[in-house]
Design goal:
By secondary structure, the protein is α+β, with helices and mostly antiparallel strands. Helix content is 33%, strand content 29%. It contains eight helices and ten strands. The chain has helices at residues 2-8, 22-41, 55-58, 81-86, 122-128, 179-191, 212-225, 228-235, and strands spanning 45-46, 62-63, 66-70, 89-96, 102-110, 132-144, 147-157, 162-171, 194-195, 198-205. The strands form two sheets. The chain has an eight-stranded antiparallel β-sheet with strand order 2-3-4-5-10-8-7-6. A hairpin with a 5-residue loop joins strand 4 (89-96) and strand 5 (102-110). The longest helix has 20 residues, at 22-41. It starts with a helix and ends with a helix.
Length: 238
């Protein structure tokens, strides 16, 4: 008898079963649409402009009157696990010119394939090294006819040293100037179906006087001296 009573409370099955509530149907359709959209926009192409090459082999030691002097003496991000994880290639060089000018070059490349590229910007690593940032200015620097990159000009000071620099960051095809824009740049590239690579290029000097023009000239000379692969590392694929 108890089995019979329990069976009376079961919903009918088969062709006579009532239709699903409209709300459940719409919710299910929404979930299916979201899953389809996620699959459609899932990044499928890994962008790695450096490939299997090495920065040291692609950047000349001598060009346009500039000569390699050393690979040390630059302000670097803290040597923590984050830096080691996000950078697959890190190039540091000091160049000297016969006229007495000196330029310091840092190129940090991240060939990350997880779409969460981060970079240590000078606004972070210089204060961590005891510098005060006394000037920050957004500037577009012309590397070649028709080629400009959005950079930041920064003056960093301690009691013993004043360093002027320009730097830019590239994530895929985009050049986010601010830390807050980096994640948006990654998302934008993901929506294009790309997992972007990234690079930070920093050119700095301790020469006296306003160094904006000399920094720009060095950047343009460097761009003119490298080959097509390194150009794509610096400014992204065509």
């Amino acid at each position: 008898m108890s089995q019979f009573i329990a069976d009376q409370h079961l919903p009918p099955v088969g062709p006579s079963s009532p239709a699903l509530p409209r709300r459940q149907v719409l919710a299910g359709a929404g979930l299916l649409a979201a899953a389809g959209a996620a699959l459609a926009f899932k990044p499928r192409t890994v962008l790695r402009t450096l490939g299997t090459a090495k920065l040291d082999a692609l950047v000349p030691h001598d060009f346009a009157g500039w000569h390699f002097q050393a690979a040390s003496g630059l302000v670097l991000p803290p040597a923590d696990q984050l830096r080691d994880r996000i950078y697959s290639e890190l190039l540091t060089r000091v160049y000297q010119h016969p006229d007495g000018g000196m330029m310091m070059l840092l190129i940090a490349y991240a060939g990350s394939q997880d779409g969460t590229i981060q970079v240590h910007r000078p606004e972070v690593c210089y204060p961590a090294g005891g510098f005060r940032l006394t000037d920050i200015e957004d500037r577009d620097v012309k590397l070649a006819p028709g080629v400009e990159v959005p950079t930041r000009f920064i003056v960093a000071e301690t009691e013993l040293r004043t360093e002027q620099m320009i730097y830019w960051t590239r994530l895929g095809h985009l050049f986010p100037r601010k830390w807050s824009d980096q994640k948006l740049a990654v998302i934008e590239e993901n929506l294009r179906g790309l997992i972007p690579d990234g690079v930070l290029v920093r050119i700095s000097t301790i020469n006296a006087g306003d160094a904006r023009a000399s920094l720009d000239h060095f950047a343009a000379a460097l761009f003119g001296a490298v080959g097509p692969r390194m150009k794509s590392v610096l400014i992204g694929p065509a």
